Amino acid sequence: MQNKITQKSPHLGGELKTLRSLNIKKFRTQKGMFILEGYRIIKDSLQSNYDIEKVWMTDIFEQSAAGKFIQMLCEKNNVPTDIIPTKTLNQLSDTRNNQGIIASARMRRPKGELSNQVLVLYKISDPGNLGTLLRTAAWFGIKTVVLSDLSTDAYSPKVVRAAMGAHFYLDILDNPSKDVFQMLRDSGHTIIGGVLDGEPLQQLQKQKLEKWALVLGSEAHGFDEDVLDQFKVKVTITKLGNVDSLNVSIAGGIILYALTQDN
Question: Where are the beta strands (DSSP E) in the chain?
Fold first, then answer.
C-alpha cells in the first residue's frame, strides 16, 4: 500500500480535491474522469480491465474480505490504492451510506465508428432512467449510445450508480449535433423512433434489420418535429391497459429485446 492519507480537517489534499471536483460536470468534462462508488462496481471495473486511476478505501473496508479482494485486483492491474479516514470519504461520497470505497476512472474514449446497433437517447433528463437505459443497452449487447445535448450527464454519480457498470462496455457519444442522424443514414442504419402512434412492435419484429438506431425520448416532452422527421420507422408498444404512457426505460427494454431477438 502507498503512504496513508491522514487529513482530519475538511480541507482535502490536492489529489482528493480533484476527486471531489468530479462530482461537478464541468470538472468531469475538463479532466475526462468520473467517480465510482461501492464494492461491486469497483470490483467489476477492475475485473473488466477498465481504466481506473486510483482506489481509496477506509481502514475498516481495507481489513474486510471485500477490501482484501479489491487490493488483490488493484495489485494485479497496477492500480494504486490509498487509505483515507471515514470522515474524509464521507465528504467525497455522493451517497448517504457509502460502503467505504471510492475510485476515480477515465472516461472511455469512443472508437470513432458506430456499431451496427445504436441507441439514441433524446432529452432523457432523469438520472435513474438514463442509467437504467445504459444498463439495458449493455445487457442486449449494444455497443454505441448517443445522447442529445439536453440529456443528463452520463457520468454523473447517480447515472453511474444506476448503470451498474454499463459504462465499462459502451461507447457513449455525448452532445452530438443533429448531424448524427445524417451520419447514421450514411452508415446504412435504419432510424427507428419509439413513439405513441407508430406501427405495432409486432410488425417491426417481422422485419430483418441488420443495422439500426433506436431513438427514445422524454416521456414528458416527446420529440421535436425536426427529430420526428428523421425517423424511417415509427414503432409503438401496444397498450392493453388504461395508463397514458410507459416509463422510457421500460419501453426501451421491451423494444431492444424485440430488435435484438430479431437479428
Answer: 33-37, 52-57, 81-83, 101-106, 117-122, 144-147, 171-174, 190-200, 212-217, 233-236
6-29 pLDDT per residue, tens: 334 344 578 888 999 999 999 999
- Any idea what the CATH number is for the domain that residue 89 is in? 3.30.1330.30
From 106, 125, 148, give the residue that closes a domain.
Answer: 106
* Cα–Cα distance measured from residue 244 to residue 113, given in angstroms and rounded to the nearest whole number: 37
Q: Are residues 102 and 40 in the same domain?
A: yes
What is the total count of domains within the chain?
A: 2
Phi, psi of 50, deg, nearest 5: -70, 160
Instruction: Tell me the pLDDT tens digit for each residue of 137-185.
Output: 999 999 999 998 889 999 999 999 999 999 999 999 986 666 889 989 9
Residue 127 and residue 234 share a domain: yes
**Distance (Å, whole) CA 156 – CA 34:** 8
pLDDT of residue 51 exceeding 80: yes
Burial class of residue 60 in the structure, from the number of CB atoms within 10 Å of its CB (0-12 exposed, 13-18 middle, 19+ buried): exposed
Ranking 92-96, 109-113, 195-199 by mean pLDDT, the lowest is 109-113
Largest Cα separation within the chain, whole Å, is 63
Residues of the chain with pLDDT > 90, as a percent, come to: 71
Three-state DSSP at 240 gives: coil
* DSSP-derived 3-state class of residue 167: helix
The verdict on residue 31 lying in a domain is yes
| Burial profile 189-221: b = 16 or more Cβ within 10 angstroms, e = fewer | bbbbbbbeebeebeebeeeeeeebbbbbbbbee
- Cell 462496455 belongs to 169
> Cα angle at 9 between 4 and 13, to 5 degrees?
55
| Domain membership flag for residue 111 | no
